[in-house]
Structures are given as structure tokens and as C-alpha cells.
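Complex 156.
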Amino acid sequence: MEKTLVLLKPGALQRGLVGEVISRFEKRGLSLIGIKMMQLTDEILNEHYAHLADKPFFGKLKDSMMAAPVIACCFEGVEAVAVVRAMAGATNGRQAAPGTIRGDYCMSNQQNVVHTSDSVENAAVEVNRFFKKEELFKYSPMSWPFQYSTDELGND
Ligand code: IDP
Ligand code: MG
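Predicted structure with inosine-5'-diphosphate bound:
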């Protein structure tokens, strides 16, 4: 099972989209194993968006991520990183495919509702950045035997 990080950005909170977006991941079959509201800081954003530090929009991006709290979620599932990333859609909401979260809920390159980890390697780093060990919960969702085959669950 993979774990991946989702941040519901300040715009999701301000626009009342938190429940709807989390619901999409739940309905897809991802297990929510950690969730919390956080006010992000310059410090954590410098780490989280280090790959964008030389971009002209870096300061504005950080400001937008500090404009209201975010909801940090950790979801678990088979190939969860790629599945969640695909559900978010292209970075620019105007280019994101209809049916994706960004393609259904936004019109912006920056104000694009969600952050999702982009690789298995980065997901591990990001989950660790936003959650302490004791904030992640281990349980066996009762739906798993109806969501996955036994080999997908590693039970064969
Ligand atoms: P991602 O969120 O789809 O992984 P990244 O390239 O990692 O995209 O960029 C992180 C965030 O920076 C984006 O979600 C978006 O909010 C913002 N961003 C990316 N490119 C631009 C841009 O060209 N203009 C303004 N904001 C941008
Ligand atoms: Mg990214």
C-alpha cells in the first residue's frame, strides 16, 4: 500500500469545497489515514515548494498558501500516489480535464484547489513533512476485500 499527501489549499477551505473534494477520494476507495487543519508558514513552504524557488511566482504562491488554513490529508491505497495525482488533473485548472478535481472546480494555474504528491519518493518525504508518526492511523478498512483482489492486497 502506498501513502500520499493531499493538501486542500486555502481556496478549497474558503470556497466550501473541503467535504466535496475529500468525498471524491473516499468514494474512489482511498483510505483516509491522517487529517488535520494547519496554518502553513514560510518555513514549511520553502521546503515544500523548493523546486519552484527560482520561479517569478514563488512569493505569490507562498502567500496564497498562507492566506487561510489548509487541510492536510494522508490517503492510502494500492498505487495511491498515481491515482490521486490523476484525480487532481493538470496543474493549470483551465487545462485540466473535466472530471478531474481541478478540471471541475477551478479556473486558475495557481489557485488550483489541491496539492498532490507527484512521485512515490516525494510522497514519502511529504507525508513525513506534514504528519508526525502518531498522527497517521493504521486500520484495515472493512471494504478492502470488496475493493481489491486478494493479490492486490498481498494476501496470496
Ligand atoms: P502541481 O501542484 O501540479 O504538482 P507544481 O509544478 O509542483 O504543480 O507547482 C506547485 C504549485 O505552484 C501549483 O499547484 C500552483 O499552485 C503553482 N504554480 C505552478 N505553476 C505556476 C505558474 O506558472 N503560475 C502560477 N502558479 C503556478
Ligand atoms: Mg508539485
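The mean pLDDT is 97.
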